[in-house]
Every structure is written in structure tokens, then in C-alpha cells.
Amino acid sequence: MKYTLIYIAFFLSLPLNGQDTFRSDTIKIPEVLIQRGNFNSDHSGYKKNSLDSSVIKNYSHSTISDLLSDNSNVYIKSYGMGGTATPSFRGTGANHTQIEWNGVNINNPMLGQSDLSILPVGLVDDVQIISGGASMSLNSGGIGGIINLESKPEWNKGTIIQINPGIGSFGQYSGLIKVKCGNNSFQTITKAFLQSSENDFRYLNNDIGAEPVWETRKNSQVIQKGFLQEFYYKRNRNITSARIWYESADRNLPESMLTQQVNSGEKQFDESLRMLLNFDINKGKINYFFSGALLFDKLNYVNRLASIDSRNLAETMSVKAGFEDRVSENITFKTIINEDVNVIHSNNYDQNTTRNTLSVTASSQQKVSDRIETSLLLREILDRNKLLIPDFSTGLQVRISEEKEYFLKANISRNSKIPTLNDMFWNPGGNPLLKNEYAYIYEITYEMNLKISSPAILKYDLTVFHNNIRDMILWHPGEFSYWTADNIQNMNSTGMESSLTLDYIRNNLTARINAGYSFTRSINEGTNTESDNSAGKQLMYIPENQAKASIRIAFKKIYSFWLVNFTGDRYITADNSKFLPGYLINNLTIGIKYPMRASSIDINLGIDNIFNVNYQSIAYYPLPGRFFNMKILIQLVK
Predict the structure, then answer these.
(1) Long-range contacts of 479-484 (CB under 8 A, 24+ apart)
(2) Residues near 337 by Cβ (< 8 Å), separated by ≥ 6?
(3) Quick one: 2-467+495-637 is in which CATH superfamily?
(4) What's the confidence (pLDDT) of residue 403?
(5) Which of 33, 366, 436, 484 sits in a 20 to 30 Å window from 62, CA-based?
(6) Coil, strand or helix at 46
């Protein structure tokens, strides 16, 4: 039965591309999107994914971790409600995934990763998911992939106010407000977000004794808040933009199920301030672009029982500039220079630490014929005053049929990842002599877009990939009483992803069926340490099988959304002797939207984990059973 479900999911697969699924009586406001040359990942020969706007809107009170867990092939490793959540692309680690904000890397340079549980969906307009070699068009180091969070203007005259309160189970309260005003030349957009939750859900603890015991989650409260201010000015075809993003999260961190009765007083406070300035200048066939960013990330962690008081502040300055030249009708050439300066203040380092990284990227795209396109990217990185071996990526795209949209895409890449600052300078255990990790990435994709009939459109894709990662950094027990970092691990990740979308629009009925399946074998080739029993084994917390399916239906003012999410077994020991069982989660949302001339009011009720499944993403950290939420969206247009 298990494999039957997998085979069914293979042919019914989950898409990420699309636009708003549902029709509405509300007047649609036309939108013009900024597409900066330096941030465009639309290279020939690569798979490109973007979550559709209706999905993002439905998750306005959720976090990026919830959005991706339900609507992508990215695996999210979560400590539960209020706890940290990190992504895994195609069997790689969280520090192999770059989180970008309008093309600027916002990963904490100390950790080399971001906590997706404190990034609210309501503050972004578009989420791009870029896997493997395609990620190199935005930045280096994303061996697994890149998640790019975009904020965009709407070039029209008028004022739009959105008020979006929400309430949910386990003491959850949330609110989101957006105010947009301006005209065809100037736009200002303000977004503010606030959420608090007790997260005091009941769960079945079957790990502390012979008989399962119902317990209530403790010390799991969280308060999150943030705002995003955007300014856009357009003159002719030149655009200047400025953005300021502040957010904070104050969290109590609960114990594992094994030590639930012990109160260690674990707390974590995260605070970030991000400022971004962009200039996009069009001069005929050449587009010039410049961006400058200042990022401040504070992370303070306290554990009274272990006498830990960790205080960390990372300051980053990022400058990116370049141009895109349309040399001819069929050839485009692009050059980017990017410099990042990191300054770390931490009581876990011997002293304040600074790092300066410079990269130069040149890329080109060529339309060889009406059915063949190619792309090539070369990148050189200067790190710690040393030039790395150059990275590259090359892609080929072939339109199989002249009459139909059937495409075959293939690409090969080499991508480097420099060590995190914690890997090098954490005291004790950091190793300043670490080498850079690097990976060879291979990918081939088949895509088709087929108009079955006037009201029905079918989209399908199938991707096969292989990642070969060398000199992976692993923290392991050292000669003394603490762990240390070394380049002692190699890993191969092989698998496939498939997705399918069926859209049906007729009169007042709109429907979309999505389904997807991914298979990933992420094998540890072994380490350079003695008594290594992990060689040839699946990496910990990497599920081999994932499948998702959903159906959305809208009829006049009423709409509904049903999501089914399957995650397979995950090993929790390096030798694969123990594992977490797989789980199947069902979520349902039902809503109604009332138009009031140009304004509207939208009310929806959601039920997550309908069948009250008891499951875990990380061993001994339970996730909630059935819970409810209700949201109201009031949109006023003037």
C-alpha cells in the first residue's frame, strides 16, 4: 500500500508556478513588477519556481516555514510551534540554503542559515524557490538552493488599506496591516505584523514510559512583531527604491518530551534590522543596477540550568553593482560585482571578528535558434585574501515541439560555500584553517504546458538531480571535552521531483488541482575519523519520500482549499538504527469574500491536522494536533 501511494503521487505532482487561482468580483488593480537584472534567476536550462499569489495570501498570518512545508518540496526541520525551523533542499543541510531578500543574502553569517519560523509571510509579496545550479544566478553558496523573498510595488494612483486580524487555537492572536498609497511615479507601502501565542497544546508522550501519557506543552510562549517600509520612485524607465525591515521574536524554548518536567529557563531573543537601497537605470540596450544593504542581526540565548548567557550581534554591509547588455536580439551579457563585509560581536569569540568577501560574476544567454537556448555563468570569489577555484554553471534548453510547449532542460554547475564564522571562530571548537566546501550539481528537467480544452490547462514537470558535495564541514568530538569543526565528510544526493497542475475555469467556477512527489537519497560517503558507522547511510532527518496534493475550488463568493501533506520516515541516528515514522497531515480552509464596489471583506476558517495526527519533525519535540484559526481581511480602496 505504501508504494502504491508513492506511485500515485509520482503522476500527480505539486506545482509552484502560477498566478491567482480564483476569480473575484472585486476590481483587479493592474500591477507592474520590477525585474532587476542582477536578481533575475530566469536563465535558460534551469527549473524556476514561484509560489502563486493566492497561496501566499492564504498564509499571510503564517511563517515562511509553514508556507514552504505545505507548498513545496523543501523539507522543513522544525522544533514545533515557536521553535526554530530550518530548510533542506534535495538532501542538503540548512547552511547549504541561502535566504535572500530582494537578492540580498540575509542568512546570519555566524550560523550560515536563517530561522524560517520568525520570517512572516505577510511582509513579502513573492516567494521564489530556486534549486541547485539555478541559484548561482543570485548568489554563491546555495548548494542546495535559494529562497528569495521579494517585495514589489503596484504602479497605480490611489490608496489601499488592508486590515487583517486573526485568532487561533493554543492562545494564538495575530494582526497584519498594510497601507499603500501613491501614483504612477511614486509609491509608499507600509506593512506591520504582530503575533503572540501560548503554544500550550496537548500531545501524546509515548517516549517516557511503558504507557503513553497525555501532556501539555510548557514554556513555549512566543511574541513576534515587525514592520516593512518601502519607497519606490520611477522616472521614465529608471527606478529608485528604498526598504527598511525590522522584526523581533521573543521566545521561551520548551524542553524535549524526555525532560518536559525540567525547567531549564531556555529563552531566545532574535532581533533584525535590514535596510536596502536600489537603483535601476535603463540606457537603451543596457540596464545598470546597484544595491546597497546594511543588516544587523542580534541573537541572545539564555539557559539558566546550564549557566549559558550567549550574546551575539552580526553586522553586515553588502554592495552589489553591475550591468546587463543586450548585445544583439539573441545574446545577453551580464556582469555583477558583489562585496560583503561581516563584523561579529560575540561573547563566544575570543575577539570581535571581521570578514570581507568579494565576488565577480559574468554570465551570458544565447538564443541559438527558435528551439534552442544556452546559458553560461562564471564566478570568481576572493575570500580571506585568497582566490578560490572559479565556479561555473552552464545550461541548455530545447523546445522539443514547434507546435507545443514541451521543453527539455539540462545544466551542470560547480558551486562553492565558504565556512560560517562559527565554524572558524567559535570558542571552543572553531577551526580557522577550514577549507571551503564545494559541490558539482547535475540536473535534467522535462516540462510541458498543454491546453486540454478551452477551460482546462495542464502543466507537468519531472526533474532528476545529483549533487556531489566534497570537504563538508562536520562538528565532531575532538581530543578534549568539546566538539570541533573539520572538513571530514563527503556526501552524494540523488533523486527526482515531479509536479502537476490542472487549472479549470468556466463561468463562475474556478478549480485547481496540484500534486507533487519527491524522492531523495542523501548518502554519507563516510568521514575521515575512526569507527565511522555512518558510511553508506542516509543522512539524518532527510526523508526519502515526500508527497503533497491539494485542490482549490471557488464558486462565486465562496472558496475552499484542501491540502494533503505526506512525509516519509526520517532516520535520527547516523547509523540509521532509529527513525521517526512518517506522517500524513490534512488541512482545510473555507472562506467567503464579499465585494463592496472596489473594497471587499474576506472571512475564512482553517482547520489544520484535521485527523489529529500525533507526529514529530525532530525527535522528542512534538507538533500540535488538530487546531483552528480564523482570519478576516478587510480591504479598503480609495
Answers:
(1) 480/428, 482/428, 482/429, 483/429, 484/428, 484/429, 484/430, 484/431
(2) 320, 321, 322, 358, 359, 360, 361
(3) TonB-dependent receptor, beta-barrel domain (2.40.170.20)
(4) 84
(5) 33
(6) coil
